[in-house]
Write a sequence for this structure.
């Protein structure tokens, strides 16, 4: 097990920077005591003298190296030990381009919304666009098994996403704007490889890689198809729906040690959130001639996104 950093160790590191080696000798972890520092002094050509301020470029460089090494050892001890922690965070996700399409374009009862074949732009019938950006919030509990390996159980909530795109129905003038709102709840198990536990650490900054798998529950509101080329109020509104899909995540980032027990995480992530779906049911069709209701089959769209997140880890 790694040694626990003492509260006064950072002060000792600062003192070492100005030549106060003797004050730190008895407080530093074993890995930084003088018995193991002769090679550093020999390699740097510095001459450490207790109680004397270092001067000159070579002495200053040696002091700087000693100070950085002191921080690297001193800040990495407590939270690298096996144990539990909790994490909370927030961020923003941006969706990739996607397409709403029929579950079965040949379905006749109830009829498919789009149908089979190319649309007025030559591409398969559907509605193309993206879900824009969403605010993301996460909370979880984790356990560190080894200095380089930990795992988390995470709950996430994404809100504010809204589909914006265009459909390509035949015999209908462009544009054909499409809109809908979306909220998503996720539950995942994730594993992380902390590279600091393998020796890659820059003072309090600790890079990590991670991946996770779980489920995403999507709740999409009514989907509105507008046809301003027909008339100002020409729309078709189909009902929304809820669907739970398999989800996966990969991430890379850095943890910045704020104290022995608190770490700030800054991360990039890519998420595959599975499938968003509308249910079969009534569609309200409004034209200049009036309004009618017609049962329509369901549609679906894949959802992937990438984003950034900030989080705090509190180690017990």
């Amino acid at each position: 097990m790694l040694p626990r950093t003492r509260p006064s160790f950072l002060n000792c590191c600062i003192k070492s920077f100005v030549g106060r080696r003797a004050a730190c000798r008895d407080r530093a972890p074993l890995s930084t005591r003088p018995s193991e520092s002769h090679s550093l002094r020999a390699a740097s050509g510095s001459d450490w003298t207790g109680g004397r301020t270092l001067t000159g470029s070579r002495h200053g460089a040696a002091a700087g190296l000693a100070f950085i090494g002191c921080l690297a050892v001193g800040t990495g001890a407590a939270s690298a030990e096996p144990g539990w922690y909790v994490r909370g965070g927030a961020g923003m996700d941006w969706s990739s381009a996607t397409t709403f399409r029929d579950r079965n374009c040949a379905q006749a009862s109830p009829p498919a919304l789009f149908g089979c074949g190319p649309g007025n732009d030559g591409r398969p019938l559907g509605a193309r666009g993206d879900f824009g950006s969403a605010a993301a919030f996460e909370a979880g509990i984790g356990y560190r098994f080894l200095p380089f390996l930990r795992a988390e159980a995470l709950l996430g909530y994404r809100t504010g996403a809204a589909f914006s795109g265009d459909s390509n129905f035949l015999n209908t003038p462009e544009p054909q704007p499409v809109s809908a709102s979306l909220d998503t709840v996720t539950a995942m198990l994730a594993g992380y490889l902390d590279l600091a536990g393998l020796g890659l650490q820059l003072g309090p900054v600790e890079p990590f890689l991670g991946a996770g798998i779980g489920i995403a529950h999507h709740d999409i509101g009514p989907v509105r198809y507008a046809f301003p080329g027909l008339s100002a109020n020409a729309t078709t509104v189909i009902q929304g729906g809820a669907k739970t899909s398999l989800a996966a995540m990969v991430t890379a980032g850095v943890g910045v040690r704020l104290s022995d027990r608190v770490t700030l995480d800054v991360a990039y992530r890519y998420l595959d959130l599975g499938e968003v779906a509308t249910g079969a049911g009534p569609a309200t069709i409004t034209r200049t001639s009036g309004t009618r209701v017609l049962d329509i089959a369901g549609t679906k769209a894949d959802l992937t996104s990438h984003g950034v997140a900030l989080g705090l880890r509190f180690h017990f």
